[in-house]
Amino acid sequence: MAYSNKVLDHYTNPRNVGTLDKSSVDVGTGLVGAPECGDVMRLQIKVNPETHVIEEAKFKTFGCGSAIASSSLATEWIQGKNVEDALKISNTDIVKELSLPPVKIHCSVLAEDAIRAAINDWKKKHPEAHAAAAQSEVNQAEVNTTA
Amino acid sequence: MLCWSCRQPASGHFCPSCGKIQPAQATDYFSFFSLPRKLNIDLPSLEREFYRLSRKLHPDLFARGSAQEQEWSTEKTSQLNDAYRTLKDPIARTGYLLELEGVKLEEQSRSATDAARQTGAEKKQVVPPDLLEEVFELNMQLEEMRMNKQVGEDDPNIVRDLQQAQQHFEQKLNELTTELQNDWNEWDALIPAGSTEPQDQQARIRVRDKMVDLLNRRSYIRNLVRDVNEALS
Questions:
Q1: Range 114-173 of B in CB contact (< 8 A) with A
Q2: Average of pLDDT values for A12-28?
Q3: Is ipTM > 0.85 here?
Q4: How far apart are CA B227 and CA B232, in angstroms?
Q5: Is the CB of residue B104 less than 8 Å away from at least one CB of chain A?
Q6: Which residues are within 8 A (CB) of B43 and not within 5 positions of it... i.e. 6 or more apart?
Q7: I need a surface site. Which of A36, A137, B54, B75 has the fewest CB within 10 A?
Q8: CB within 8 Å: B123 and A110
Q9: Over chain B, what HEC string results?
Q10: CB within 8 A of A4, min separation 6: which ones?
Q11: CA distance to A137, B36, B123, per residue, from B129 (Å)
């Protein structure tokens, strides 16, 4: 099967391969799998405790070229975003960017899952992040009702 | 149904009265071979039936027949090949049955992700997390061993480690095969004599979902076996 140039680029020159300290309170780890093909992907994020901005993202993927490219791209995209914005990345964004064919859509799904899982893991270590997100929603709701 | 040619009652691929080929129909692979949806299949008799039908349905035999008969023979021959290829392989057969039973193996992960995105909840992984951990670890080890092998191919320790890993994965794959055989037996026992499908709907779904879970886990182990064999070759 022919890979797009962007997939080949990420595959031959993957960004941000590596490991972060799983036990650190500022690190979230997501380990996910795609049963369709047996691929496994680990994505880790280091989050700034003040700003909730993802300062560093690392991944390690065992799978096909599309899975590696999807996770490489995902780490590039989430670095510099705050966690709430990173959660807005969906697999269809990745499909479009990498021109993935239908049979490889599950690879992009895997990358979205990995982002989500890593952020959830980080949130578990930071219960106040939940509260902050909920509070900002409440404030937003108040603004909407008073406007 | 009546035979299109002699108007006598007909079922199967050929009319029992006049022997003419019957219209090709959209059919599942089990029905094509007149089999119930059972997972234990007698492979030698499936193979005999495949060869018998291959000969009888062969398009060459219909070169002098009507255009319709030619078309039916071509279509049935193609169905026959697909059906045989799928049913003779135990894993393909199981996956096919699960799809007949309404499971979309290729889409289960995406559906779960869509659901998680909408609710904001954590996605339910379709395989247990501890298996993922184990598979990830094994992949890390395997990668290290392969890299070592690349730089110092003759190191007997590395070859030994790889062989141990190979045994370990193959044993796991065998365990899953045994487990699958048990599920097959359970499934087949749900199909009463004279019936082609399970009648107990609750049990039908329960056993079906067990097999989905098993095939999901199996695909990870299968990859590990493939990779370690590659590293050793």
A1: 116-117, 120, 122-123, 125-127, 129, 132-133, 135-136, 139-140, 143
A2: 93
A3: no
A4: 9
A5: no
A6: B88
A7: A137
A8: no
A9: CECCCCCCECCCCECCCCCCECCCCCCCHHHHCCCCCCCCCCHHHHHHHHHHHHHHHCHHHHCCCCHHHHHHHHHHHHHHHHHHHHHHCHHHHHHHHHHHCCCCCCCHHHHHHHHHHHHCCCCCCCCCHHHHHHHHHHHHHHHHHHHHHHHCCCCHHHHHHHHHHHHHHHHHHHHHHHHHHHHHHHHHHCCCCCCCCCCCHHHHHHHHHHHHHHHHHHHHHHHHHHHHHHHHC
A10: A98, A99, A100
A11: 32, 36, 12
Query: Chain-centre distance of CA A81, in angstroms?
Result: 11
Residue where the block lists tokens 């909920």: A134
> Is B133 close to A116, i.e. CB distance below 8 A?
no
Confidence check: pLDDT of A141 > 70 = no
Contact across the interface for A32 and B132, Cβ inside 8 Å: yes
Contact status of B222 with chain A (Cβ, < 8 Å): yes
The answer to whether the beta carbons of residues B86 and B29 sit under 8 Å apart is yes
Please report the pLDDT score of residue B66 as a whole number.
Answer: 94
Considering only CB atoms, B117 lies closest to which of A32, A34, A90, namely A90
The whole-number average pLDDT for the span A98-122 is: 91
What class has domain A5-146? alpha beta
Active site residues of A: 37, 107
pLDDT tens, residue by residue, B30-56: 999 999 999 999 999 999 999 999 999
Q: Which residue has the higher pLDDT, A74 or A128?
A: A74
Closest Cβ–Cβ partner in B126, B132, B217 for A31: B132
Give the tens place of pLDDT for each residue, B10-32: 989 999 999 999 999 999 999 99
Domain definitions of chain A by residue range: 5-146
Contact check, Cβ <8 Å, B106/A36 = yes
Model pLDDT, residue B19:
92
CB pairs under 8 A between A and B: 73
